[in-house]
Design goal:
Helix content is 17%, strand content 23%. With 82 residues, the chain is α+β, with helices and mostly antiparallel strands. The chain has a single domain, classed as Alpha-Beta Plaits (2-Layer Sandwich), CATH 3.30.70. A three-stranded antiparallel beta sheet has the order 1-4-5. A two-stranded antiparallel ribbon has the order 2-3. Bound molecules: iron/sulfur cluster. The site of iron/sulfur cluster has 15 residues, from helix 1.
Length: 82
């Protein structure tokens, strides 16, 4: 079995709501995966996400590293990476 980040439905988007400052950059970059909630902080749209450049970019552009993308099966961080 592959554990590649490209596995369909194999990713989990997490938002650290303490770190999130509500810039909206992630929601603009990956609107299918992330939205801003009523309190102005980001929330994942779905329990599982598929790998995409937009999602990776969203995690990489977050100024506070509040948005992270993980392999759902293991929790391994896949974005942002140094
Ligand atoms: S880019 Fe980061 S700080 Fe800005 S809304 Fe998204 S998670 Fe929050």
């Amino acid at each position: 079995m592959s554990t590649a980040a490209g596995d369909a439905g194999g990713l989990e988007v997490r938002v650290d709501r303490i770190r999130c400052v509500g810039t909206g950059l992630c929601a603009a970059a990956a609107p299918a995966d992330v939205q801003l909630g009523p309190d102005g902080r980001a929330v994942p749209r779905h329990a599982r996400a598929e790998a995409s450049e937009r999602l990776t970019e969203a995690a990489e552009m977050c100024p506070t590293e509040a948005l992270t993308v993980h392999l759902a099966a293991t929790g391994e961080l896949v974005a942002p990476l140094d």
